[in-house]
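Good morning N.,

You mentioned wanting to compare the apo and holo forms, so I went ahead and generated the holo version with 4'-phosphopantetheine. This is what I fed in:
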Amino acid sequence: MKNGTVHAAAAIYPGSFDPMTMGHLDVIERAAAIFPRITVAVVVNPQKREPLFTLEERKQMIVAATNHLGNVEVTDFRGLLANFVKLVGVGVIVKGLRVVSDFESEMSTALMNRSLSGVDTVFLPSDPRYSFISSSLVKEVFFLGGEIEHYVPDAVLQVMRAKRASLRPTERTEENRPS
Ligand code: PNS
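and this is what came out, ligand included:
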């Protein structure tokens, strides 16, 4: 390989996306400018807790928010990410890093994924405008009555408003949602 040669590789951007935030969208847009193809892969069952949004809702929000990008597709996976990346044959895993604590957990995850699959992880530093935004904070702020339109794509805001309207009054705040 000559110095300066860049090998283009299809990339995968995995996550819970419960829901997608502006930080996620920023990473997708920047990754889509670097790699020829990005597969956004929504995990079916996030380990942390029961998702607020169904798998279809999470995928549809991403499709709607990324329809201006020609090289992004949205899919889902269950089980080990390492098995999925081997199955679909992508060359790179993309992850965003917001703060130092992200780095600590993502580093061991990246090394485990490389050990299991041979596929490396490329980290994109979060844009400082979005480094404090997380899906869980967005949900908490929204269900406690705060404004979140600067933190999520418009397609997500619409779905969140519909979700809040569909909940019974006693379920409408984060503190009342079952964990
Ligand atoms: O958006 P998140 O919740 O930070 O995404 C985490 C995700 C889905 C990328 C991670 O939990 C994952 O890869 N889950 C699949 C199960 C797996 O492969 N676990 C071993 C990781 S080394």
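DSSP finds six helices and five strands in the chain.

Happy to go through it together on a call whenever suits you.

Best,
F.
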